[in-house]
What we know:
Blueprint: H1 2-22, H2 29-36, E1 41-46, E2 49-57, E3 64-68, H3 79-85, E4 90-94, H4 112-125, E5 131-136, H5 138-149, E6 154-160, H6 177-182, H7 185-191, H8 197-207, H9 216-226, H10 231-239, H11 250-253, E7 260-265, H12 273-282, E8 287-291, H13 298-301, H14 303-317
Parallel strand pairs: 3-4, 3-5, 5-6, 6-7, 7-8
Antiparallel strand pairs: 1-2, 2-4
Helix pairs in contact: 3-14, 4-5, 8-9
Amino acid sequence: MKRLLVVLLTLAIILTTGWWMLRRADISYNTLESVYSKSNSRYLKTGDRIELHFTDSGPRDAPAVILVHGYSASLHTWDDWARQLRKDYRVIRLDLPGHGLSRCLDNDEIGIEQFVASVDRLAGSLDVDRFTLVGNSMGGHTAWAYALQHPQKLDGLVLVDAAGWLDEPGEGEGQPFIFKLLRNGLARSVIRDLDMSALIRSGLEDSFADPEFVTDEMVERYSALSRAPCHRDALLKLMSGATLRVLASKEKLAAITTPTLIMHGDTDNLIPVAHAHKFADAIPGAELIIYPQTGHIPQEEVATQSVRDLLGFLSGLHADPVEVSPEDAPALPAPDGG
């Protein structure tokens, strides 16, 4: 018994020491901004309090496109798309509350409703009355929820590997380990302050069909931005089920009348490609594009093809109406006599 107690005590000391060695402090916003802000970074404020980080590029009189990232990501995920879109469109990207360089608003209320309100507030502050809303993953969940609440403000809706459906039995088994771990309440409390770089790398590699897309720089960015003050609490709160208050259903999505494009990677380990087909079946007139050998983040993994498809969709939304001169107009049938 004494030997067992000694072994258990020794093990406890080792685990405690290891836990303390792996702890990582928060990183100040000033430090993060010096590394990860863009040359055109802007901030939405309430008084002197910074709330949302965003960028706004492209012609101000062009049709607007708002891009919304997914869970634990940031507006950097849209870099490749933004370079192409801003030539002909006004491109607005934001970091959702608790992500990137945005601050936390209210972590007790964090979730899709808060994100929808944040998108709407940003659009209003920039006097953008109509726009196309694009979202990836959790950002896609935000986008379709926004379309239900504010259909009059949207020209188009683009869902990129969008979330929102509950998994069917057997789905989700191939999800990255980090997501399975974070769904456990005890695990969340234990790992909250630990160095998550190895798990972040593993999760990112599982998010791409080709793990070579994951670089040391990408891992460091995800890891560093998650350590902004209050961000870890926000991310863990989201994994506790805060997004589950707004769930997709065929009946609910049938009310979306906004022209919709659905994009999805066929080897997405996080959100099954079957969910893309559910969105396409539920949203009237939706167009569906499935990318072969592509994971959860098509805007990065197949950036050239996916942005080309997006530009085709946008050009259809904003095509100038064809004017028909009277002499070219088709002849109307003569009225019946009688």
